Amino acid sequence: MPTNAPPSFRASRRGVLISGLAATVAGNASRADSLAPSDPGRLPLTAAATEGPYYFDARKFRSDITEGRPGVPLEVRFTVLGLERRPWPGARVDIWHCDAQGVYSGYAGQGEDQRLSTQGQTFLRGSLLTDASGTAAFSTIYPGWYRGRTTHVHFKVFDGAHEVLTSQFFLPDALSEFLYTRLPDYRRASLRDTLNSSDGIALQAGATVLGAVREEARAYVASLTLVADPAAKPVAERAPPPPGERGPAGRGRLGGPPPPQFQPLDGEARTRALVPGRA
Fold it and tell me: pTM value?
């Protein structure tokens, strides 16, 4: 488990309670509990989502993927079930996501000014095989954001060398907002422009990729139960990297559309979009 939580994180835990955000996170968890493995027979197949432009196989089998990257400690815990809704031991789970400033490892053209290169780096990427209970748990940091996307974690499930599921795990907006506006590791010159309620990928994927998030003493724990079909033959939907961004071994291509830009919501409109039930 990462232990590099800044003092401001420890102080912010009380701030979350005072501000009422803990109730929001609990509401998100309650919504996800309707899909929890207490009644696994009712679980639908997990929705697929685009792979995005920043995947590569880092060939890193490890539970701790932080590589010293600063941020709030987060454990991402997947429970993988097969079609019979029973635990799937030995499935390979890959995970990757951006750092606190919205930067991915392994690519040029990163950062607000697109001048940062992380080629050759593998932070916040890793793979694990599920245990006897179908679980794979990664120690990481809470991801940041970048233009045109809400807060998310990418993942894949493999049966041996056969890919059976590619999707994204979405985290609660109110918790993200609190961390992004209160902690130095996450602060940016501009407000996040895209929320869960305005992210087309999140809206299309729906409830099966909204997991439960809870607060523990040393980290937040984000849990998601996946139902995957071992016989699935998905075709990964890969977006090209933004202009000038090339990944490992030339993965991706130059050109392509720039990331979408939206005018961030502000004031009461932003609160309504961030907090469930405030619409």
Answer: 0.79
